[in-house]
Amino acid sequence: MVSQCSACQKCILCGEGWRSFGGKCYYFSTDKLNWMMSRDYCTGKGGHLVTITSKEEHNFLASQAEENHWIGLNDLEKEGQWMWVNNQSLNETGVKFWRQREPEKLSEPDNWRHEDPSGENCAELDSSDFWFDASCRKQKKYICEKNQYLEFTEAV
What we know:
- The protein is an alpha+beta fold.
- It has a single domain (2-154), classed as Mannose-Binding Protein A, Chain A, CATH 3.10.100.
- The chain is 15% helix and 26% strand.
- The strands form two sheets. Strands 2, 3, 4, 5, 6, 7, 8 and 9 form an eight-stranded mixed β-sheet that branches.
- A hairpin with a 2-residue loop joins β2 and β3 (24-28).
- The longest helix has 10 residues, at 35-44.
- The two termini are 21 Å apart.
């Protein structure tokens, strides 16, 4: 717990460049990568592309993201079967923030094939606070997530 840190110790919750919320740490990239490279980058940093499991978490992420960011959701293995990078199905997490349009128009995910014949198989958090499916090949910012931990080090 943070309260256990004394004046002669430095408490590290997430690490430099990470933001803390709800017991987890989040890294909002400043560079842009395609979805697969984003996934690999997050894994290399000891985490994974973000999995969104609550309205509170979604609202926090949306408030921090000023433009579109990759999240850890895809239907690469089977069209229409959306899975998180931790192998949970979208239905298991119970939260969905897909962009809904008027009844006569397609809502997200729509697997639009105009720019990429393979379709839109990766999800992004849009700057309008909704999820959209997009071509995994596109370069976008991304959000990594890892568990929060405390490390006590002697202050210098």
